[in-house]
Every structure is written in structure tokens, then in C-alpha cells.
Amino acid sequence: MKKQSGLTLIEIMIALLIGLIIIAATITIYITTIKGSSDTLKSARLNHDLESAMALMVNDIRRAGYWGGAIAGADSTKNPFTIGTADIQIPTASCILYTYDADPDGPANITGINTPTDLTDDVDANEYYGFKLDGTTIRMRLTGTTTADCTDGSWGTGEMIEGNKISITALTFTSAYKCLNVTTALSYNTTCQVVTAANLVTGQKAVESRQINITLNGSLVSDPTVTKTLTSTVKVRNDRIFTQP
Predict the structure, then answer these.
(1) Are 200 and 145 in contact (CB under 8 A)?
(2) Contacts of residue 240, Cβ cutoff 8 Å, sequence gap at least 6
(3) Which of 15, 32, 194, 198 sits at a 20 to 30 Å CA gap from 88?
(4) Is the whole-model pTM more than 0.70?
């Protein structure tokens, strides 16, 4: 009769140890893969939400100063959407205010005649816009009466981003101006309001171009270590026109 032999206790323990090592390695790879996928999804969500918010701000600010009444022969120095308190303002670093003719309810819609001197195309309450940082979210202005005060008007109660998902940690607006004396082709790196009185003579015209720089920072509410910073530059399409009286 042949004597049967089995594994010794030491061999069994070594086999169990090798099995545990293999299982641990497999679990580690699985966890690492899941975490990597989760981090990618979180980052993608943050990128999408911040880029969407930035695109909305850039596209809307670019329209500032548009005037539906700027028909042939209209005096651009009387554009109600760029003169006085209707101009682009940055009352605080985290707030920008501006206006444009959204209707557009130009002179033709009011008088029935395209009269270049018709200034009844005033800025309506629902044509005051703006963006501001409110806590950890961004809000857009729906109505207003001035571009000088960020507490003025009605601001949307709905959030531009999901506040329970994304936290806006910083929103900063800065501006740059260039004034061109179109009569003598001289350029000044400041506002035309400063340049006009000191450098223009009677009858000369100046064009002021505006550039707005935006910096947006955000993070995930569920994981503050996932952060994103976006920067963008907006060239306002509608220049301000000045004439020295």
C-alpha cells in the first residue's frame, strides 16, 4: 500500500501568504484605478462649469455699449449706452457693471423715422447688466439704474453654477484703456476723459478702446484640493467716441 503525503504546515502558510500578496496587489490596482477615474471626472466637471461661466461673462461683456440707434449719420458721441453712468464700470474688483441695447429699441421703433438726433433710445432698466462674486457663487444682474453701484438693481436668484458642487474662490475684473486721437493719430494709454481736455483742441475726435481682464478661480465642494484657475481677456467691440467742444 502506497503511503500518501500532503502539504506541510509551512508550505500551506507560504501559499496563503503568496495568495494574500496577490489579492492585496489586485485590490490596490483597483482602488488606484477607481480613484484616478474619480479625480478625472471631478476635474472635468470643474473645468466644464468654470469654462461655461467664463464664456458667458466674456460673450456678454463684449457686447457692452451696443446701440441699436447707431444708424447712418447718428452721432456716436451721444450713444446713451456709453456716456455717463452707462459706461462700463468696475466698482469693486469682483464686480463689473455695463449696459447695451438688448431690444434694440432704436429711434425707428419709437418715432417711426430714422432720426439720427433722436435720443429717446434711453437705457432701460432691463438693459443694465453685470456679474459679481456673491459668497462662493457668481450672479448676473437682470435690472438696474446705474453702473456705479454693485448693490443696485435686481440680481438673479439662480446660480450660474451649481453652488452645492462648485465653489468660486475668486473672481477678479481689471480694465485697460487706450485713447486714440483720430485727428492727429496720437495714442494714449489712458481713458479719453483724461486725454480730451488736456490734449485735444476744439473739433478733434478721440476713440477710446476698452479691454477687460477676467480671472476666475474655483474648486470642488466635495474635494477642495481639486482647483482650477481661468484667465480671459475681453476686447469690447463698441468703442467710446469723444469730441472736444
Answers:
(1) no
(2) 65, 79, 82, 83, 87, 192, 207, 208, 210
(3) 198
(4) yes
